[in-house]
Input
Amino acid sequence: MSRLGEHPIVDFDRGREVTIYFNGKPIKAYEGETVAAALYAAGIRVFSRSFRFHRPRGFFCAIGKCSACMMEVDGIPNVRICKVYVRDGMELRTQNSLPNAENDIYSMFDSMIDRFFPHGSHYKKFTKPKFVRELVTAQMRKFTGMGEFPKAELNEKGEYEEIETDIAIVGGGPAGLSAAIYAGRTGAKVILMDENPYLGGQLIKQTHRFFGSGRHMAGTRGIRIGEILQKELYELPNIDIRTETKVFGIYDGVVAAVEKDTKLLKIKPKKIIIATGAYERTLIFENNDLPGVYGAGGVQTLMNVYGIKPGERGLIVGSGNVGLILTYQLMQAGVEVAAIVEAMPRVGGYFVHAAKVRRLGVPIYTKHTIKRAIGKKKVEGAEIARLDENWCVVEGSEKRIDCDFICVAVGLSPAHELLYHAGVEMRFIPELGGFVPTRNRYGETTKPGIYVAGDVAGIEEATAAMMEGRIAGLDAAIKLGYGDEETVRLRDEIVEDLDEFRKGPFGERIVAGLKKIVVEG
Amino acid sequence: MKVAIIGGGVIGLSTAYFLAREGADVTVFEQKYLLYGASGRNSGGITAMHDNEAMIELAKRSIELYEVLPSEVDFNFLFRQDGYIKVAATGDDFEALKEEVRLQNSLGVKSRIIDAYEVKDFIPDFNEESIIGGAYEPSGGVIFPWPVIWGLAKGCRELGVEIRDNTEVKEILVENGRVEGVVAGDETFRAEYVVNAAGAWSNRISSMAGVELDNKIIKEEICVTESLKPYLNQYLLDITTGVYLSQSMRGEIVGGILGSEADNLSTSSTLDFVFRYSRRAIELIPKLKGLALLRQWAGVYDEGKDGLPVVGETKIDGFIQANGFGKAGMSVGPAVGEELAKLILKGKSEKLAVFNPERF
Ligand SMILES: Cc1cc2nc3c(=O)[nH]c(=O)nc-3n(C[C@H](O)[C@H](O)[C@H](O)COP(=O)(O)OP(=O)(O)OC[C@H]3O[C@@H](n4cnc5c(N)ncnc54)[C@H](O)[C@@H]3O)c2cc1C
Ligand SMILES: Cc1cc2nc3c(=O)[nH]c(=O)nc-3n(C[C@H](O)[C@H](O)[C@H](O)COP(=O)(O)OP(=O)(O)OC[C@H]3O[C@@H](n4cnc5c(N)ncnc54)[C@H](O)[C@@H]3O)c2cc1C
Ligand code: FES
Output
């Protein structure tokens, strides 16, 4: 059983017990948990098979962004089950496999397909004569596709709503919440949307006390910061809060979203603030798609949101703050951490976190990388190796680590799709974590009226995200005629405060990055 | 004989292929990359169900060519001849279908009128109440446009055709009423014939030669769902709303709405399209409701003022039009190339006569 019983910081109030069916087999679950979490707790690691090579697929990100966890749910194909909550009697089927994903006979393709049918050969092989071509094409077709055509008609009735508002905010993490609160306080009419059923973004997984300066809530646990912000938010009547609402496009200034999978929203705002946060990066190594290789966020979600242990013994790749914090969160939950590997010559995260981890007895291998994950259907171990000055593996330095999961914590990339869709100017700024938008000091991009705030504007941390959110929220409201001189002064004060905050040693990189992308205006 | 072809779409490449097969020295100019134009953005519906005699003849021949060309160029176009279905939701549209089927039958096309229940036999879960009736053509179906273009390009290169991508034609050289060549990129290319196969950009190209051309510009939007195991075999077009759908070889349900006239060449996508398309698609096949749309895009193509293509010689000697194919360019492309090669090399093509640019 891998459900956590007691946790020193989080209380898990599990809902009513229900039964769901996995390929016909009954499984116990609790209302309020996702299907992925329930299956995981029941020890199921393989949810489906991959499109071409029929490799096992489990869950990876736990936040609906990677599509690794797709299954057929009540006759509807390709459902990301890390985003779907259990319902009594739910029928789940594994996809793209025969007879099922655990024992898929087509998994033999994995070792053969490249030899006999390498990429592009569907155009280039068996092209003549005509009858051979037609026969092969017809057979090939049978192997394409992930799920089956819906067996049932989705019985939810589609709804539609048009909304006119002053400011539309996408993302309810610290940046979006702060933008909503500060814009809302000026009297502006705001709609705040987040695809999750809860607000708080990354904060809800952060059970640790925050780093940063005292004035900016350092010492407070991440989850509490989220709660404080939400309380402030709910005091404002002019904010329309929509959770489980995914924004899928920005068309000529119109924001398009789907609420609770059934309602289409067409929002016509005067200003838009994009605060969509970031994605986790992954690493290239052999078998990196094996169930049991996770992103840090996936593990945190599983453990801190659903109270489910990711495994018994883990390997952490990356010693930044996220990797270090995760390590002691795991140990807190009673999970063993075999080691941390770090490619750089020294630990990436803050000294306090590293010291704490070392005290707990976890070895940190610097100048090391993961070479491959070991296992057939799920992780059974990992091979790590030392790196030389040219970042090449030193032959003979390989070492096997026994573990049943691997957690990749190698940083984040801005979640910038909506910015591209809206057509704002984007540039690659390595210091900020990837492609980020050109903007002015208030966060307004090259598309007038479209703002950014938080990790999507550059990977930083929650304090800066909150300040950027406040600035964008205030500026958007001011430009719409809300507030007074006091509001303008407040905005400028926060701008200065943020500059001050970034003057520390950890702000250096960020400041260098911002120099390249923040313009006058 | 030297020929310069402007446009690396299905029309330009088919023409280049058949010219080179007869020994002509051909260069194709593509301003961006192959697949940039409508030929890389369409839904690959192939049919001989047209309402014009010459178009039907070209489409019939093209289907034959799509059956033999893949062997010739050694490239699988992924053409599935599982049939093409047109449906109508109004009595008038159904009458129009009946009339076109009579014409098609008189020219040897094996299309036939079917009722809503027969559509349901082809497409399980089809909502028979969403239409009045339809027409079915067994030899039509779905092709994957990308390998058509890649395969034609491969065939062209093997015959010695030079394909210059990222090379925009900026000027057409004309002396004493005769075309002399083109200026493309930074170079001048001499040629006895210049073919304007620039799709939606054809009006612009034509004016470079001083020849008036006033084709309509049409923008068409399209989208795909997630990929599924084989379900939909036929290509389905609702002529009343213009909504069409089919399933790609990768398994996605590919669907769009027949285009409408635009005043520019923008290929941006709209939310309105997503609304209109999904609403009608779900009426036709209600179970589509459970699927997610993954991507949407748009393409632009051109159409002659009277709805027919513009193909043939112009008042400038050697300047040939090959444009205005509207929503049927993929269906007639290969045969157009074959006929155009005849016109250029032998001075005559009966099948193209009605598309004469001087008809306006
Ligand atoms: C393990 C870990 C430890 C950390 N520790 C600290 C720390 O100690 N101190 C500190 O200051 N910072 C810390 N951080 C960083 C901090 O959590 C982030 O910088 C901060 O959460 C960024 O806020 P944000 O609002 O920009 O984005 P997020 O918190 O990522 O929120 C973005 C929100 O937008 C939503 N969203 C995205 N796309 C859409 C869409 N299309 N439609 C609707 N909603 C959408 C997402 O669901 C999400 O809720 C830590 C991060 C991690 C992972
Ligand atoms: C969404 C959509 C769906 C469609 N569905 C179907 C269908 O199901 N069946 C069907 O038969 N047809 C369909 N069509 C129509 C079909 O795609 C077109 O009729 C056909 O592709 C036109 O081919 P073309 O070679 O004339 O033009 P294009 O493919 O547009 O090629 C013209 C090329 O000329 C190039 N060019 C332009 N200017 C210059 C210059 N100055 N120098 C060099 N090169 C230049 C362009 O970059 C372009 O690549 C569809 C079209 C769209 C957009
Ligand atoms: S989408 Fe479900 S695990 Fe990534």
Notes: Residues A 59-62, 64-69, 80, 82 surround FE2/S2 (inorganic) cluster (ligand 3) (CB under 6 Å).
